[in-house]
Fold this protein.
Amino acid sequence: MLGVSILYGIYILVKVYVAVMQAGFVAKAKDGKPVLMMPSKFFKAGRYAVKKERLVILEAFVEYGLFIFWMGYGLRWLDSVIQISDPLLKSVVFVDLFIAINYLVTLPFDLYQKFVLDEEFGFNRSTIGLFIKDQLKSALLFLVFGSLVIYGISWIMLNIPNWWIWGFVFIFGVIILINAIYPTLIAPIFNKFEPLEDEELEHDIKDLMRRSGFEAKGVYVVDSSKRDTRLNAYFGGLGKSKRVVLFDTLVQKLSRKELLAVLGHELGHFKHKDILKNILMMGVMFFALFYIFANLPASLYEKVGIPPNMPYSVIAMFLLLSPVFFFFFMPLVNFVSRRNEFAADRYGSEIAGRANLRNALLKLVEENSHFPLAHPLYIFFYHSHPPILERLRALGFEEHSEAKEALRGECAAIDED
């Protein structure tokens, strides 16, 4: 148990260190000459980024406190209070309560993020009533379908030799299924999707998809503006369930050519089979995780006071310790993703115009108030996309000398007013 606690402590320390470095980097950079944004928005985006990292630091310490609670007392306590003889039913109740307690402890951070931080900087358009409604819908979906998944994996653990292989197949299959049904069955529970009314734009989008060999069930606009002001678009679903989804904020803020360039970038991911590559990488990651957690020593479970041969024990340990694995594995995934983004940009610029994609990226930075600079360590751990300056430079954007220095992480070289 001491080794696990040390490993988790290292994870928290690294997480906090990266957040501290990012907050310090942005705090200094925001007072320099603005890059890609108007001075007021550049400074505002910097303040937002700094406050977000301070919240991350506080969350990390609470996360560590939760870990200490569960390992030192909580798992043993939860096992003792759930007096259910059926091992499958006990696993469902145990894991549901474990997740519910973690959710309630971290809920104040979500509320602060949305109704204090995002409200202060003009991103939030949601209401307390809508937030509660979303949470209740999510809870109900998890209670029904999440419990079925917990029951299924628990049955596999109790009844099948080498359960971790078949458990991986089952869970990975569930992940694929969720991705397939999300745009048509899950997302509409939370948002209203309407067919794109602009017939000319729809024609151009379908022409773009045809040229890329991409087939979708339709082009839809989602009412994202009722919760947030940020801009986005995505291709959702797998197989025949694929659909093009445009945030209503994106349709309002981008020109037709810029919007087509954004979709051209997304089609680049399809053309290069990036989605399949990501699925494969996630499969490898989950396969490794299942092997690791199937072979944890029984002494670890005994020290925290739960039986080593019960499904709920393994699932709870998985939920507790897997963030450590993900945190240190994700830099590899992000490295591959950043390379894919450059390739998708090239495809988008070829099919929809380099200047259009460049202008779209500049608008996305401005409208989303996303601070365009980041500490190299933060990029290494968290960025699935390359720094925006690198993407723009690859598209022929000529940045000023101070932007070049900032791109290399040399914020000390940025002239101050």
User: Anything to note?
Assistant: The chain has a mean pLDDT of 90. The CA atoms of residues 75 and 296 lie 16 Å apart. The beta strands are 193-195, 219-222, 233-236, 243-247. Residues 2-192+270-413 form one domain.
